[in-house]
Inverse folding.
């Protein structure tokens, strides 16, 4: 522990310092003396440690812009995190979150939120989750979502939406209102149809990505997909598809494909 | 001629022998008689003025007979301009609007003012709302021809090349192709060598046409995007500010300033969300400032040579990727292989 203390001492007086505490076997932040006094640091990276939770005191670090908690065993986040006034990037990927604290969406400046590889689903999202208007990238891949709330349309600055490896049965039509979306990852879900509004998004440019493999798409979509993404998007605009969509959107609950087997997921391990 | 037959012109008396006799144009005078008819004093410097047979000193002549200038109040000696019921020095009789001398060019009485032809025409034009030809001073009924900063009837001019009579569509050419527009000599040439051409001949001369306003470019020409532009018309397609020599960025046949090019076409850094200053890393449909390109799991810097894995279209360094749950790595590998198999 004295080694960690030394690292903390070193950055204490450097303005806008960045603190790397990667892969150091840390399980309790309270054990790192002086950490909460580092109000000067702008980045704290705690990847590959053994954290199971975060102390509320972390919110003292009021100049934090980047907080990286990747690959820990965090089960719960403190609500105080959402009050960090300058936090722009929060990475909590590969952890054990099955819920988020109430009021989690109160971040004043959050731009990138990575919650991929956790145990979250739509029922665990706090009600203000989609109030984070400053978000430009939201990663929810490798979780357990079956639906995405239509309130996602509030995230008007969203450019990247990662929903890979979930249990999604259908996407809300409101996704078509996210006009700045350039990346949409929906591979490995249980989607049979896409809302026609997806075709209104700019997903075809050289800087755009639509990943949609490994879904039980209806045959006409598969046909177009084999020709290329542009054919899919063109097809979604046709009247034929709109009729098909309206019919299938009624009974998407029937004949649900099975959920993915997540027993081996590290986020589930006890 | 003897002394006995000589008599003074004024007093008709004879002259004494040896007496000094004044002879003026054949007339003889006693010296005491050769004086101003008004003040009876000798002429200063011998200068006198004659009027109706009598001689006057300069001052008395002026007082009695010389006209006074209606403008400056001084006597008018020499040429007298009689106009507007008064006398004037030639240099004092001027157009009441532009102050041009009117003695030789003639004048027009307008509301009891003496005006030159062109001012009179202007005044008349103001009343009627029409332009006045700077050449014939007549009113211009049709569109005026603008030339050297003035307005004309087109029919006073002919095309420099084909001599056809011109109208308002004629083009004034300031610098002939081949002149550098910025040196002084050609500036003077421009100033005095302006020429008029009919549209047809003008087009054949190869004067560049601005891609924005479609008008000929007579000053500096900017060549970009395969077209010519007036310096002030070559602007950012987004903010419409002229580049004025600053760097521009092209995209799909349009030019943009640095800020708007990056804003519109992406080179905003994924980490800082600012326009990437200097060199840019582009990968995974994104851009990074060189100093911000890093592994998204451990935040350690990556370089151009670093190997990285793709995780949700974000870079992950090899060390971090190897610490991923093996179950996740296996699935990522499988879906990567599936993507490779996918027909395009």
């Amino acid at each position: 522990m004295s080694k960690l203390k030394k690292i903390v001492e070193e950055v204490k007086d450097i303005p806008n310092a960045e603190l790397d505490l990667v892969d150091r076997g840390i399980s309790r932040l309270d054990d790192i003396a002086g950490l909460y006094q580092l109000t000067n640091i702008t980045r704290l990276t705690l990847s590959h440690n053994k954290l199971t939770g975060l102390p509320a005191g972390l919110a003292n670090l009021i100049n934090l812009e980047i907080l990286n908690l990747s690959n820990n065993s965090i089960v719960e986040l403190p609500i105080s995190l959402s009050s960090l006034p300058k936090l722009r990037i929060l990475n909590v990927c590969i952890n054990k979150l099955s819920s988020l604290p109430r009021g989690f969406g109160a971040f004043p400046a959050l731009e990138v939120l990575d919650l991929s590889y956790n145990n979250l689903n739509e029922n665990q999202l706090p009600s203000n989750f989609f109030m984070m208007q400053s978000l430009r990238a939201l990663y929810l891949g490798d979780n357990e979502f079956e639906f995405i709330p239509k309130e996602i349309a509030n995230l008007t600055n969203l450019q990247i939406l990662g929903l890979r490896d979930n249990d999604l049965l259908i996407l809300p039509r409101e996704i078509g209102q996210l006009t700045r979306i350039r990346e949409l990852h929906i591979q490995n879900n249980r989607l049979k149809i896409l809302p026609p509004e997806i075709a209104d998004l700019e997903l075809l440019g050289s800087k755009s990505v639509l990943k949609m493999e490994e879904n039980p798409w209806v045959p006409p979509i598969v046909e177009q997909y084999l020709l290329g993404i542009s054919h899919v998007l063109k097809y979604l605009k046709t009247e034929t598809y709109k009729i098909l969509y309206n019919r299938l959107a009624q009974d998407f609950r029937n004949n649900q494909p099975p959920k993915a087997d997540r027993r081996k997921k590290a986020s589930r391990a006890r | 001629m003897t002394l006995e037959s000589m008599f003074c012109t004024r007093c008709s008396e004879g002259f004494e022998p040896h007496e000094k006799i004044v002879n003026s144009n054949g007339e003889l005078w006693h010296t005491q008689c050769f004086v101003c008819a008004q003040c009876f004093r000798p002429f200063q410097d011998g200068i006198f003025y004659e009027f109706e047979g009598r001689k006057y000193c300069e001052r008395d002549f002026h007082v009695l007979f010389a006209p006074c200038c209606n403008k400056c109040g001084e006597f008018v000696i020499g040429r007298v301009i009689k106009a507007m019921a008064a006398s004037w020095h030639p240099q004092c009789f001027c157009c009441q609007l532009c102050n041009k001398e009117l003695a030789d060019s003639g004048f027009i009485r307008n509301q009891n003012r003496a005006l030159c032809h062109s001012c009179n025409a202007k005044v008349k034009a103001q009343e009627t709302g029409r332009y006045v030809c700077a050449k014939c001073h007549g009113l211009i009924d049709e569109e005026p021809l603008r030339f050297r900063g003035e307005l004309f009837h087109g029919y006073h001019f002919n095309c420099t090349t084909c001599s056809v009579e011109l109208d308002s569509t004629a083009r004034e050419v300031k610098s002939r192709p081949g002149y550098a527009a910025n040196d002084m000599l050609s500036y003077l040439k421009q100033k005095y060598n302006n020429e008029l051409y009919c549209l047809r001949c003008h087009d054949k001369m190869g004067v560049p046409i601005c891609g924005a306003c479609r008008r000929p470019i007579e000053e500096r020409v900017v060549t970009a995007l395969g077209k010519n532009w007036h310096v002030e018309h070559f602007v950012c397609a987004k903010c419409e500010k002229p580049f004025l020599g600053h760097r521009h960025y092209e995209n799909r046949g349009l030019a943009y300033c640095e800020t708007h090019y990056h804003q519109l076409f992406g080179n905003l850094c994924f980490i800082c969300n600012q326009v990437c200053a200097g060199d840019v890393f582009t990968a995974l449909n994104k851009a990074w400032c060189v100093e911000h390109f890093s592994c998204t799991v451990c935040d350690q810097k990556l370089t151009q040579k670093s190997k990285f894995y793709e995780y949700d279209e974000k870079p992950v360094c090899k060390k971090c990727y190897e610490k991923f749950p093996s179950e996740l790595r296996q699935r990522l590998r499988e879906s990567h292989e599936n993507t490779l198999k996918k027909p395009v």
